[in-house]
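Lab notebook, bench 4. Still working through the backlog of constructs that have no structural model yet. Next entry is a single chain of 282 residues. Request: give me the structure tokens for it.
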Amino acid sequence: MTTKELFKLHLESQNSQKTGKAASYVRALDLLSGMLRAVPKGFADCLDIWNVHSVSRLQALYEVANEQKHLGTKSCWNISGIPPSYLQNGYCTAALREFQNFLIESAHFKKLMTTYQHHSGSADDLAVKLNKELSYPKALLKSLDQVGKEALREMKIRVNQRAFRGIIFNIYGISCCITGIDIPAVNRASHILGWAESEPTRMDPRNGLCLSATYDAAFDRHLISLDEDFRLLISRDIKDYFSSSVVQAHFHDRHGQKINMPKHFIPLQSYLEAHRAKGRFL
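Model written out:
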């Protein structure tokens, strides 16, 4: 996929209300490329904005675009054939900022996946390396208001969770370790110790299981767990109250079934013990 297509998907994934933001921002950057082709303003290297991968260069362009926005109809980018509203109403500057964040997020994701793929030390060392902070340019940090700081926090969570999903899917071959279902769209990277529960374990591959959506929901609510031999445990909250044929087939009949074990980064029993303690498995 092209950078433009990936950027649009990035925007759409954050816009559950379908407001049209993705299309507007993509259009704004296309129009900004047209403005630069007419009047480069020292940015001849940015005529094809989708091939600009320098965040600092985009920041310099953002500052010029912001100046031109406030000039209104006197802007040198007030060009016939290009709707002036995209510049004057702030769509170009907002799209530039979002494009910068997209590039920062993509670079951090790539760094995390490369760290995992080329790691040769202990699992403990890998967990520490994967828990690294997202590198966000100081020049951009200075301009963030409270809303921007909250968006940055959400970005860090989003990119780490995305990387964790990629790592867990790789470890388990994209297959649910209980059912063997290998459809990525219906599988989840389940944390054994929850994301909010323990910060040091958030990115530890031994703190993850690949589970299809139903089992992920049950695991998250401590309705199922794994014993010391990685066999499926069914909570009394299911055993005592649910006995339909569907529940029988998907839960009761699987009690005691051993999961499909990964070849490396086997789930830590200390994590599973803590998980079992929160359910009714006796």
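Notes after review: Residues 130 and 162 are 12 Å apart (CA to CA). Residues 91-117 form the longest helix (27 residues). Flag for follow-up if needed.
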